[in-house]
Structure formats: C-alpha cells, structure tokens
Amino acid sequence: MSTPAVHPDTPPVPAAESVSSLASSAAEILVLHTADEQGMCTHCRAAYALLVPHPCSQRGWASRVDRRVVTRQTLDVLGIAA
Fold first, then answer.
1. Is the pTM of this model over 0.70?
2. H-type alpha helices, the chain
3. Rounded to whole angstroms, how far apart are CA atoms 44 and 61?
C-alpha cells in the first residue's frame, strides 16, 4: 500500500464543503456573541453562565475565520469580479 507524497511547502487545500461549514459556523457565532450594556458577552453568559468581556474567545475566533473566508461580498468590496 503506497501513500501519497507529502510536500511540506504545499499547504493542504480544504474541501469546499469544509470551508462552507466553517464559514457558516463563524457567522452563527458572530451573531450570537454580542456585547451587552456592560460590555460582557451575551451568549457566554446565557449559554455557559460565564461573565466574559466582549469580544470573547469564540467571537475572536469567528472574526478571524470570517476575515479569511472570501465571499462574494468581499470580492464586490474589493472591486474584483467573481
């Protein structure tokens, strides 16, 4: 049984459904993890009973993923035709 050669200089290419799933998860987190009047994360308090300053770690992760996933809106803002 042979295994495909791994080239360390070539990053892996994720499957389209994985990217889509990751982007939708990040979008859901961005909607849920918002700041309340005191600057605490509303979803962390409601779901986990944690008083966490906003932005929480989940919101930070989702923000980073959201910036890395290229969407049609991103291309429109940049003036690049898709």
1. no
2. 16-32, 42-48, 57-68, 72-78
3. 14
